[in-house]
Amino acid sequence: MVVTGASTGMGAATARELARRGFHVLAGVRRDSDRVPLRANGIEPVILDITDPDHVAALAARVERGPRPLRALVNNAGIPGAGPVEVMPLSEWRRIFEVNLFGHVAVTQALLPALLRDKGRVVNISSLNGKISMAGYGPYAASKFAMEAMSDALRNELAPHGVQVVVVEPGGVKTEMSRAGLAALSRLDDGMTPEQHARYGALMRAIPSHVAAFTKAGVTSDVAAKRITKAVTDGRPHTRYTIGAAAAFLIRASRILPDRMLDRMTTSDLRKHYPAENRGRTTATHTD
Question: Which residue from 12, 96, 194, 238 has the highest number of Cβ atoms inside 10 Å of its Cβ?
């Protein structure tokens, strides 16, 4: 098994859960210091930045020289990316896509020879935001929508060759990722122009509260890891698995509700976190 983004959170918990079930896990971590907490029977930490071609090549070489078949690749690494579309610098858009999409494509391409040979499985960790986007979450959601589209294509391309492709869509999960995202949001806010502050200041103040509430209501990393492990080990897997009640409900709702109604739902939820003086001015007026 290979699990990327295993330094903390869902990735680390998934590596431990798979090892507990008897699998040998190559757990991708960013720093040497991340190896220590993961060292356990069945877990082999490997230094892996999925955007570094040398790291990806080294991982592929380790898989090829290993004595075990490659049962699954869990593409879990990711970074947050909140902020208005107008405000987020293009360099940040590119960085988010480099990690949340292109890095996963690179790892998948590198390990496909082994996956095809061993009839393995690709499990791509997407998000609720891979199906639903809202104000302030565009950059991250765009990268996850792209991950979903890539996964659909890959599933159809590899099905005739015995490799299954599964998508996992978490909602709120209690991880360190949200904290890192809020630090980046603060830096983004500092670089906004006065005009941008007038347009998006209230939104920028709402996002941290919204993220905190969603994360607090979410599941633990250990619960998420069990769901990811199910996607890895099910004999006849679904094409998609959700994690958490919110993700299950909202993704189902997105399939049947008109866009305008879904907009009102997500805007209403976000509006609760606006500063009190701005809550009455956030309702969008739609005309067709």
Answer: 12
